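Regression report. Comparing outputs from two consecutive submissions.

Submission 1:
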Amino acid sequence: MAIHSAIRLPLLVAAIAGFSLAANATTIDYILDTTIPIAPLGSPLTSFDISFVDGQTGIYYFADRSNKSVDIINGATNTVIGQAPGFVGLSPAGTSQSGPDGVVVVHNGSTVTLYAGDGNSTLRAFNVNTPSAPVAQGTYNTGGGVFRVDEMAYSPANNTLFVANNANSPAFATIVNANPTNITMVAGPLTIPGQVASGGMEQSVWNPNTGSFFVSVPTLNGSDAGGVQEFKPDGTPGKYISLNSLGITGCSPAGLALGASGNLMIGCGTANTQTVVINPVTGTLVAKLAQVSSSDELWYDPATHRFFVTGANAAGDRVIDVFDDATYSLLQSIDLTALGFGASNLHSVAVDPLNDEIFVPITASSASFPNTECPNGCVAVFAQNATSVPEPASLTLLGTALAGFGMARRRRKAA
């Protein structure tokens, strides 16, 4: 198993005695670092959902329906260290009644809590102070019957979770307090004003700039391009940003991520469309990115200021596309299909801000979607290719030595 220790050098611009140093633009070259087998946990990986990296510990969590657990991986060693069990797994009725689904990790003082949605409308909490030995805490039923609690977002300002029952008709959300031993409702059920019953509700984010939640809305009336709905901390609906009003004719928003720029990136679930960037304060269009569509989960890495978008390219290959938060230029497209991972719906991604590694769950091989790289399924880990990091531009310093400059992203150890 190859382990890379990524090193990033900050951009340095200096002027010394009339001489200047121009630094090369950052080179993006993620390569396959390793694959982490999941079948030894019990079953090949045939069904999974959301994944999440705890940015404070570098521990990676992902919803493994095949083994009825949230699998826990140490991002420093790239090994499975534990499982949070007790979920319903993959239901014969389909993924809408399966679990686990949405996943998020919350730091509350000295307590670290894993929250995960289950297929019977249940939100489950686990103490993961020791990630290798998660301890089941409280549960909360959102009242959605047999359907799943799916994606969710955490508000540190209010210590609340916004959790969506996307498969219900109508789809609805619930805001609950993030007290792992006594989860109670703050507001709900919350529906999208004016939405048709089959309209759905997807990835949500907490926006500290507006002090509110935003959630992706696949469609409002059944034939539109969809949009993004704001909810205040008390559950009051805020603004609805219609993509049709911004000139977008096809999207079906699924993934959603907030950048340090303050802009929201929206992954479009519809094939052969685009990825959309909007300003949630002004409700205006910032960019349309044609490189990837058929998206689900999006991830934003605050350390590198990059968006990571799951989806498909124009050829139909499953990809992870990396975009810059400032220019929205495509920095790299990681073609998972070309690497041998197949063309099934590889829709989950998370990034470790401590070492810049990308985690992507990969479905086991099937007749329809052969996977030659890890036939039983795995988690693929991508790291920056250290040999491609550019050297600085020519440096001329008159009578001055510049030494000791650099920053190494340290690897950390976790249980």
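Submission 2:
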Amino acid sequence: MLLHIPEVLSTDQVAESRQLLEQAVWVDGRVTAGHQSAKTKDNTQLSEGDPTAKQLGDFILAALERSPLFMAAALPLKVFPPLFNRYQGGQSFGNHVDNAIRQVTGTPHRVRTDLSATLFFSNPDEYEGGELVIEDTYGVHQIKLPAGHMILYPASSLHHVRPITSGARVASFFWIQSMVRDDGERTLLFDLDMSIQKLSGEVPDHPSITELTSLYHNLLRRWADV
């Protein structure tokens, strides 16, 4: 499932975050790359232990908890602390698949990367190039969203970031371990949830709402791994 989640952060929240990011210390992005992806990765990042990264990461996690669309789609069990990257001056990231397991630095905790997320801090008119290109069974998708918006997609997808030809692209990226490991099962639950919500809004007293809600929770009970 490839899902655009709008307005995770408001315009004011984006502006405040960007002020902090502009004052932060950026390092070579290959510090968090696996062996293969390090060969094609060319960008800068905030160090995982950077105070700004920790502050903004907590801010993003709090915003995600308030997003019904994210919670319904991801069914999150664990979320890797958000990281931050910047592309400029021809930088890019070649085709790769994200590591299946991510160790949270300085802790014994591991996160299985069922879903990948990119939250944009730069608006599309601030840079040229830099599209996030994701390949799935339905084709090739070029993603370039407004600041504060997020794209959520299976971490198993082959993807890359096209070279920046002008300006700078700043974003946060992170991974989610879902309660439901299988993307197909997770997508069915999401579609069912959205249908229940639509029916509840249009016909609040429809008797099928209870039946469909029971079906949703019984499927979640069958598929969830918590």
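Expected: both submissions complete independently.
Actual: both completed, but the second showed a warning that disappeared on reload.
Relevant detail on submission 2: The radius of gyration is 18 Å.
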